[in-house]
């Protein structure tokens, strides 16, 4: 397991992260840290800005304000450079290469950790073959770790939904991240698949990778996470242990749809949700 000593640099430090779309603010001055060896949950009602915040952390969006650092190094606002630095993620909507095999999907995730250039690949040099063999070995290790080794040659599109989620995690782990961001990893899963995912995330942590997870399944989050942060309408409402968060009256009110002091109105919330949806559409193009 990764060290959690006081001298270890945080795996993630987000400071004052703000994301505006035109005149609309989807995320407002959010601070969050994830320490090595920690599992941190990020929850909130629909439209709270959770995925927008994730996109700011991983370079898909350039925050309007604030900074994001990984192990005390400010991250460049480019997804591939963020991955190279040591942060990997999955997506709310599964983004596998449907017509590639399970093994090939994981091998795609290894590209940030291979050093062979174009000429080496074209010449099929011995060094290239060694690197290719090492990548395949690592990919198979990850498929074994996630329980998918027996289906390495299957097309990704033919996997059951729960196994496609596992494959996304295996592909993310292929870049050997120090921090893994999971965006609703149990969405659409049955209770048995959800329990298996909880075990898998704990195993990932045990291998030394910190985890930040968005999820709507509160039982999953509160059973799994060391700390939980709550976003409501773009702002961090509260952060603490599961017991602290579950007992906070503002959190209860937010999930019940009851306004609390200082809460934005429904019109503002609807505008922010629309802006986030437009940004996701642009991202998918």
Q: Biggest sheet, strands in spatial order?
A: 6-7-8-3-9-10
Biggest sheet descriptor: 6 strands, mixed
* Helix percent band: 40-55%
Strand content: 15-25%
**Rg estimate, integer Å:** 19 Å
**Succession of helices and strands:** EEEHEEHEHHHHEHEHEEHHH
User: Looking at the structure, what is the overall shape?
Assistant: globular
pLDDT below 50 for ≥5 consecutive residues: which ranges?
A: 1-6, 116-123
The number of helical runs is 11
Number of strands: 10
Strand-pairing-aware structural class: alpha/beta
Mean pLDDT: 85
Explain this structure.
- This protein has 285 residues and is of the alpha/beta class.
- The chain is 41% helix and 21% strand.
- The protein is built from 11 helices and 10 strands.
- The protein has helices at 50-57, 79-85, 102-109, 118-123, 126-145, 161-173, 191-206, 218-224, 242-247, 249-256, 266-284, and strands at 12-21, 24-34, 39-43, 65-70, 73-74, 87-89, 179-183, 210-214, 227-232, 235-240.
- Strands 6-7-8-3-9-10 form a 6-stranded mixed β-sheet, with helices on both faces. The chain has a 4-stranded antiparallel β-sheet with strand order 2-1-4-5.
- The longest helix is centred in the middle third of the chain and has 20 residues, at 126-145.
- It is globular and about 55 Å long.
- Mean pLDDT is 85; it is low at 1-6 and 116-123.
């Amino acid at each position: 397991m990764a060290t959690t000593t006081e001298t270890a640099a945080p795996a993630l430090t987000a400071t004052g992260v703000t994301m505006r779309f035109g005149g609309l603010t989807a995320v407002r001055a959010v601070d969050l840290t994830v320490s090595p060896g920690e599992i941190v949950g990020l929850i909130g009602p629909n439209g709270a800005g959770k995925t927008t915040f994730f996109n700011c952390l991983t370079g898909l969006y350039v925050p309007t304000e604030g900074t994001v650092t990984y192990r005390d190094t400010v991250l460049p606002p480019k997804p591939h450079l963020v991955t190279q630095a040591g942060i990997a993620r999955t997506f709310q909507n599964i983004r596998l290469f449907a017509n590639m095999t399970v093994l090939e999907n994981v091998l795609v995730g290894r590209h940030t950790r291979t050093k062979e250039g174009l000429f080496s690949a074209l010449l099929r040099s011995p060094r290239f073959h060694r690197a290719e063999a090492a990548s395949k070995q690592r990919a198979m290790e990850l498929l074994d770790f996630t329980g998918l080794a027996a289906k390495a040659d299957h097309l990704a599109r033919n996997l059951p939904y729960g196994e496609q989620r596992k494959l996304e995690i295996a592909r993310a782990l292929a870049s050997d991240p120090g921090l893994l961001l999971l965006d609703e990893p149990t969405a659409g899963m049955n209770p048995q698949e959800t329990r298996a995912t909880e075990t898998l995330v704990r195993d990932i942590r045990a291998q030394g990778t910190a985890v930040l997870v968005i999820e709507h399944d509160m039982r999953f989050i509160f059973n799994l996470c060391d700390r939980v942060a709550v976003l409501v309408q773009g702002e961090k409402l509260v952060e603490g242990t599961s017991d602290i968060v579950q007992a906070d009256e503002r959190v209860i009110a937010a999930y019940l749809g009851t306004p609390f002091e200082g809460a934005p109105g429904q019109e503002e919330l609807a505008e922010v949700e629309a802006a986030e949806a437009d940004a996701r559409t642009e991202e998918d193009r």
